[in-house]
Amino acid sequence: MSDLTVRDRLRWPLLTPVAAAVVLIVTWFQHDHWIALTIVTIALIASIVAAVHHAEVVAHKVGEPFGSLILAVAVTIIEVALIVLLMTSGGSGASTYARDTVFAAVMITFNGIVGLSLLLGARKHHIVSFNASGTGSAVTTVIALAGVALVLPSFTTSAAGREYSPSQLAFAAVASLALYGAFVFTQTIRHRDFFLPVSSDETGKVTGLLDLDEDGHADPPPAREAWISLGLLVVSLVAVVGLAKLLTPTIEDVVSDLGLPYAVVGVVIALFVLAPESIAAARNAARDRVQLSLNLAYGSAMASIGLTIPAVALAMIWLSGPLELGLEPTQMILFALTVVVTAFTVVQGRAYTLQGFVHLTLLGAWLFLTIQP
What we know:
Layout: H1 3-27, H2 34-62, H3 66-88, H4 97-125, E1 128-129, H5 132-151, H6 166-190, E2 198-200, E3 206-209, H7 223-257, H8 263-273, H9 275-286, H10 290-315, H11 329-346, E4 350-351, H12 353-371
Antiparallel strand pairs: 1-4, 2-3
Helix pairs in contact: 1-2, 1-7, 2-3, 2-7, 2-9, 3-7, 3-10, 4-8, 4-9, 4-10, 4-11, 4-12, 5-6, 5-10, 5-11, 6-10, 7-8, 9-10, 11-12
């Protein structure tokens, strides 16, 4: 492919991250005026769209499940940086910001991304199929991570409230990294086939792996284009998080003026940060590749916990103040309902539109009860 062709294909995705980065730099110290906030919002949305494009280019080059893994890890690393940065700024919600954001990521991925993917995937064939072995192992890992990081702190007695003692927090961090590392090894090396799209018959029964080389899509991009997209993906994600941080004070003011709980701030930020993965998952589902959508959803939830908790634990070495990781009673009940529904969704390896509606209903219940506890 000629250099001209590469430039043509990358023209708008190339300009968008660069423009968003310029907006981020220019407005970093002064963004209180409504015009500046409007520009920041537009740049944020454009960055999300560009991030999805470049993630798909990289995923097409490296293949699956590595492509889904790259997007999930890239977004989560930036999300972790945002969480730690906001915790260092203090404020009334600093002690629970990590918990609220991570839990928001779990609920958005488990119910929002999964529910939307099932609806989009089943609209054409009325049923979607996926590998229950791979998806089930991902769900199991996330449940274990959430249990150690978010549920147990509400029941331990070594520290006051819903906190871990320093030694307990260190154990949770090591356990989270170990679980995440073990899953990545399973997904990419030991049992990679369990996470690839599957073919199925008219009843939704899995008949084998989907042939990704004969699906009518374009050939993988050249290495140079993939490397350019990888770099622009990083720029786009940095812009997404940086611009989201600029909007955070405005969001906090609106939340405060409306008398809403501070946890709503974490929900809004998580929605922005997870937007690239949500769009990518929806596109895969529309192409009848629900397995990739589930990889993104559960992989994002896993990375959100498995990378955030160790990073926060490390940050607490120099951060003062409490760190509340334990879920509130309402959050715990919603998580338990999500776990049960998810188990029934993935156990058969196929799902209907009904399961999508059920998951989206749980998402709506969580959003409503977060706003109106």
